[in-house]
Amino acid sequence: MFRNLLDRLFTDDPSPRPLATDDAEVAVAALLVRVARADDHYHQTEKRRIDEVLAELHGLGLADAAERRLVAEMIEAEAPDTVRFTRLIKDRVSLEDRAAIIGAMWEISLADNHRSANEETAIRLVSALLGVTDRDSALQRRRVAGR
């Protein structure tokens, strides 16, 4: 399953095809893991928050969300760059939903109550690659911080 999913995510096939729901969810989860790992401190708090965010975003139970996170951790470790994830998502996800993904990334970044420059840089990169403006990213950050 893991290798097949990697092959589907990282194919250079130019014809856009809809991803299976599970594949799209794992691609988003891999970006969340990438942001959490950006500061070289991947804490249990961040893992738990990723599980909660995935459960909330996709209507999953925490056990299913944790399974998705574990797969996403393996995929993220194998992925050579962030561009492949964002290109895949940008081609298949609405702008409104891409902004929500940025909000989820801020959820993970702020989960440990510490603002990391490396995590913020990763979010800025993903925002730009997903076509989400700095303003919309800042609005998502403020929304998350206000909780």
Automatic annotation (TrEMBL):
Tell me the superkingdom of the source.
Bacteria
Among InterPro entries, the record links this protein to:
DjlA_N, TerB-like
Q: Signal peptide position in this chain?
A: none
Co-chaperone DjlA N-terminal domain mapped to chain residues: 26-140
Q: What is this protein called?
A: TerB family tellurite resistance protein
